[in-house]
Design brief:
Two copies of one chain form a homodimer.
Chain A: E1 3-5, H1 16-30, E2 35-36, H2 52-65, H3 71-79, H4 89-100, E3 109-112, H5 114-126, E4 133-138, H6 142-150, E5 155-161, E6 164-165, H7 167-174, E7 180-185, H8 199-212, E8 215-219, H9 235-238, E9 244-249, E10 261-264, E11 268-270, E12 278-279, H10 280-288, H11 297-309, H12 315-340, E13 349-350, E14 358-362, H13 369-379, E15 381-382, E16 384-385, E17 398-402, H14 408-424
Parallel strand pairs in A: 2-15, 4-5, 4-7, 7-8, 8-9
Antiparallel strand pairs in A: 3-10, 5-6, 9-10, 11-12, 13-14, 14-17, 16-17
Helix pairs in contact in A: 1-13, 2-11, 5-6, 5-10, 12-14
């Protein structure tokens, strides 16, 4: 029997980061009765009215009526391989113009298998192993950290504040040694930090990018959760010099099971051997052809049908969801106040973000996977240890609570269990 | 305006391999009226009876009836994130037992975004940049070459014969210098070589793997096209010592637009920090969590529904398709005989494979992208230059013809145009 030594496998597989993702899933699976503050998943109520067959039909009719395809040719689009760049780029470009103030041509877009593939492709295009640094907010989404680890890209963490990443620290890091090629940031309600960049900080970040010659990789997953009237422009809408690669997903406002996301990469790449300039999106599509070939056409067609059903904008469904998540977040913060009282055990405190899915809780002890196991087994409540979100290894005394997936009663019961765990279980 | 220098991007983007994939697609797009021998895509007639909504319903009923899920919980499986490992592993394990003689547990499987993602994950798990070599049949599928290029894995080509790769050459390469960690091979009707390994060669390859301590990455995309009674066992069915990582796809027998493939990786990985042994499949799933998170659940559900509709086996639909592709291949070979005559122009010759989608034509001149452009513009016929399939850079005087996508009349007309091009256009 052939055994493989772990030391013979790629280094990322010995990294606690990738290991913990698997372990977390495994713990979840073993405690199905626990209340879980772990998944950053949409609330299941929003799946009730998804009519897959109806959306497929709507997209087919669009191909026939608006794009002039014969019914047979339209139908084939669903079943055949398609271009690596994507099928619904025109609809997504239109959406970005309407909903985000981003003006981009369909050719500057690549439709990806979720935001995750967009991150991987962007990092691969921009980096050669062992060369430049990737700067990230510290803490950051595990997906960007994992993709960087998988591609052997060294990461430098920039401390996250309530106003997003500390831009003075970023400016300093740019002159501290190795070149920073790109900076990953979620300007609105970052997962897991919960910070939100002011408009002034957004402008300053773009100036820094210009001054220090780096690209900004913008992740706009949680922007839609802003309270009405509190929306702020995405970085890409402020970007006058093509410094921003903009990544988005349909997982939160449509549904995750389609695995459809996108990346806007309108940067020009000079002197390509194929003749003349091309766009960074062309290079991302070329890389995609050796990662997943293309994003499942049937999944793209469902998302296309949802866009068409909403008149090309997702503002209305996004608003409906934002209301739910604002309520859940408020409810979670109130429940923590109620159950942990005005003066919780020393060292226990939490942040109060204005949007997004997540609350961070600081503990007086290290938050390990063993502690999670105990919380699940003895107190019936699950959450996410924060250490995996920190490239610097800081944050090992924090846990993340997600409120998106639960109902009010579950949040109350979960907060009560969490309070019991924090008061008796540490 | 920020420009990116191509020299600042990852080296794979300067490689003719990735560039040519994009250029090929672009040429195809510019000559929609040309007859195309280029795409290795299934014949469109097989899309006529795909009932997406029906297959989704069938999979949902299976979750309710056979797996005991409540209707709501079953429905959520389609719309939520799912495990990186996959949703339909049990159905695929059952399929492999019935149709391929592969006995594997569902846990040793990962459901991937086509065979392409399976290749990328496998290579990433097994390789560290700049370290071991990947051996491949020469020529090989561009997808494995592209994935290796994207991950900076050095490749050594092993000449392909009618009996598959030259195993003496492989044995020699194993002792020639740098370690060969894995060998990629499509034992049946390889794309583009068309070779097929004898049963004896299959056994010998497994012995070599044992002797020289490498893994075999088996790609079984075209095995189903064997003539009735001419089937040969896949390497994984002969594998007694877990030397084979087996990759498959539902693109050719179901449909490409689902983008669903899989990998069997039942190798044990010793001493994992998560405690005890685990399987290589666990590591592939961990990597998948930072590449695509999971394979679109709605796409997996459609494939699951097709498997259920066929009683857990794809033998019947595979047979129906094999008949069509055998007829197309025979038709193409006869048309070449007819149009190019018994003594074609000096230096023009082609192989006569027994299965698969592809015929290789040798030309007396270099087969460049410029030549393809001329063939399309002046003679109305498209094909694929072979140089991109050769890691050694050999094969630059060959082109590949695919017969899978065309009808008999199109094959006749295309062969006539190709003959005109070969006789007047070189």
């Amino acid at each position: 029997m052939t055994g493989q030594r772990l030391t013979d496998l790629h280094g990322s597989l010995r990294d606690p980061l990738l290991g913990s993702i698997g372990f977390l899933n495994e713990v979840m699976g073993r405690y199905p009765e626990a209340i879980s503050f772990a998944p950053g998943a949409p609330h299941p109520e929003f799946y009730d009215d998804v009519d897959v067959a109806g959306h497929l039909d709507r997209y087919l009719r669009h191909l026939e009526t608006d794009r002039g395809l014969a019914p047979d040719a339209a139908r084939r689009r669903l079943f055949e391989y398609g271009p690596s760049r994507g099928l619904i780029n025109d609809l997504v470009a239109d959406l970005l113009r309407r909903d985000a103030g981003i003006h981009t041509l369909p050719e500057a877009l690549v439709i990806t298998v979720g935001a995750q593939e967009a991150m991987l492709l962007t990092l691969r295009a921009l980096y050669t192993p062992g060369d430049d640094l990737l700067a990230v907010a510290d803490p950051s989404f595990v997906g960007i950290l994992g993709a960087a680890r998988m591609l052997d890209i060294p990461v430098v963490g920039i401390e996250e504040t309530a106003d997003g990443p500390d831009l003075d620290a970023l400016a300093k890091a740019c002159t501290a040694g190795r070149r920073i090629r790109a900076f990953y940031v979620a300007p609105d309600f970052a997962n897991p930090g919960g910070g939100r960049m002011s408009v002034a900080s957004r402008h300053r970040l773009l100036e820094l990018a210009e001054e220090h010659d780096f690209l900004v990789i913008e992740d706009n997953t949680y922007g839609f959760t802003a309270a009405p009237g509190q929306e702020r422009p995405v970085l890409k809408a402020l970007d006058r010099s093509r410094r921003v690669v903009h990544i988005g997903t349909f997982a939160k406002v449509c549904f995750p099971g389609a695995r459809v996301g996108f990346v806007v990469a309108d940067q020009r790449v000079a002197a390509h051997p194929s003749g003349g300039d091309r766009l960074l999106a062309d290079d991302l599509a070329a890389l995609k052809s050796v990662v997943t070939v293309n994003t499942a056409p049937i999944a793209q067609a469902v998302i296309g049908g949802i866009l068409l059903a909403n008149g090309g904008s997702l503002a209305v469904p996004a608003r409906r969801r934002a209301v739910r998540y604002q309520q859940n977040l408020d409810h979670l913060l109130r429940a923590l106040d109620t159950w942990l009282g005005p003066s919780p055990r020393a060292g226990v405190r939490w942040n109060r973000p204005d949007g997004g899915f997540f609350v961070r809780v600081h503990l007086p002890v290290p938050v390990t996977l063993a502690l999670l196991e105990r919380s699940a087994a003895e107190f019936g409540v699950l959450w996410t240890p924060m250490a995996q979100f920190y490239p610097t290894g800081a944050g090992d005394r924090q846990l993340r609570l997600s409120c998106s997936y639960l109902d009010a009663e579950q949040i109350d019961e979960g907060a009560a269990r969490l309070a019991a765990f924090l008061q008796e279980g540490l």
